[in-house]
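Changelog excerpt

This revision adds worked examples to the README so contributors can see how folded entries look when concatenated. The first example is reproduced verbatim below.
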Amino acid sequence: MRDYLATEVALDHAEGHLTRREALQRLGLLGLSAVAATGLLSACGTEAAPPPPAQAAPPPAPPAAPDYDVAAALARTSPITFAGGTGELSGAFAAAEGTPRGAVVVIHENRGLTDHIRAVAGRLAGDGYTALAPDLLSRVGGTSGVPDATAALGTIPEADLVADVRSSLAELGRRAPGTALAAVGFCFGGGMVWRLLNSGPSELAAAVPFYGPAPENPSFTGVDAAVLGVFAENDARVNAGLETLDSALTMAGVRHEIVVVPGVGHAFFNDTGPRYDAGAAREIYQRMLAWLGANLA
């Protein structure tokens, strides 16, 4: 996952979201040498010559507003702490309104447990699913306690991250007894859902990883969850592992569906980010609800 996180930083710079100095600093925190960091920025197209002067472009249109009540979603969540495999974990918990249709662990992006991810948990609760969004940076001080979430995640061994996700599943099961469990993750979190699935049998009945990187040589042995893999058409880096994932799921006999959302890029679901696509996010959210409804009943 460290290589994936490093590429996230380089692409953020390539798209103008980070200065070169910021990108090099973050890549250094991820353990890359100056030479390796410079090479990665170059490979992502950041060393290209600047374009010739031109007339100033019109200001970009403001991003579309989410089509749900973000404040209400956040209000449904409460901070919690619970026992992890190697120490205390923190997170955001949201109890389903009415009788739960299921329970969902929501795994955050490389930026840690942000209000966006809390809102996803609260939104799911409003739609009938008890939700828990763990902070996978808990073991290094929590999202609010680290100077750079991406770099801090890169210091945590994958096995420890998987153990924390499994602890989150156990805590969710304790808070929603007798309820079928699912996992949803975005970006880095999507990659963690794939790694959870690849780590052996679990309590999962369904999983929905969004544009997450594939594990190395996945086998998905013992998976008994229905998997809806969500990808973005304009996301060649992550999509390079799509065929590997599809083949491994098929070989393992895992019921699954792969959806490539047309015309969008990586992180299109994040309504606080620059790549947000309101129409595509609305459609895929409803598709996710249908998947959860069919497989957590």
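The second example, added in the same revision:
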Amino acid sequence: MPMEFIPLRGDFAAEVRGLHIGVGVAPEQIESVEDGLARFGVLVLRNQCHGDDAQQAFIEQFGPPVVANLKEIKSRHPHFYDIGTVDEDGIPFPPGGAKESFLLANLLWHTDGSPMQPPTRVSCLHAKVLPPVPPPTEYADMRAAWDALPAGLQQEIDGLRGEHSYYHSRAKLGMTQEQFSQDTLNSRPPQEHPLVRHNPRTGRKALYLAAHISHVAGWPVDKGRALVDRLMAHATQPRFVYSHDWQPNDLLMWDDSWTMHRATPYHGAHPRNLRWSGVRERAPV
């Protein structure tokens, strides 16, 4: 069966048919997925029943895998994070613990791995355990958000750089640096990235934002944060957002260079677990 991309929201987000990563993926299929990511940003693969090795083999074809070395959320697999309400053994996270506190920041609009250099390029999230009514995950089209900015503002921000920090985004939810391990503090210092990025496959520009941005380089802190807040509010308007309603065994992948995303609140008793993996850019950004 040939691969098809079925648009879900205009030119943002598409369902991929004819691709099952559990049976292996050919190089030409990887290239088609790359084209799909450049065109749609978010790809939905339904009914992906596969093991961890298959997911890892698939994601590694898009770049160097992210090493899951944050002790606060580390799993047994070196390249996976489990995101949800329970650990790999189905045990609920302790209330107020470091892992629960760290994962709460997923409720903020963010870009995966932006506090790293090179940052995350492609993320992959597989639904392992879902409640009867799963909370949706929302994605923002940063390319369309850039296109909709006034020309004067585009000119003002193109070339500016923001500093991205895990500690800044977690502080918004009350997490202090004392809750991070020393290894994490040493291995994940804040990083600067441009506020506007260029996609080499499409030639289009997009905003590159996240709740991780603490300030704009070279600007007074208050002025920079006001600009970032303004851009974040603009980029996350409903007209730029795709909301994904999860189904069992869904696998989502997205291009972090021109999308943002966030989890939505879930307080049910039924466990929920999504398995994340990702790859980094091949060069610093």
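Reviewer comment on example two: The chain is about 25% helix and 25% strand. The mean pLDDT is 91.
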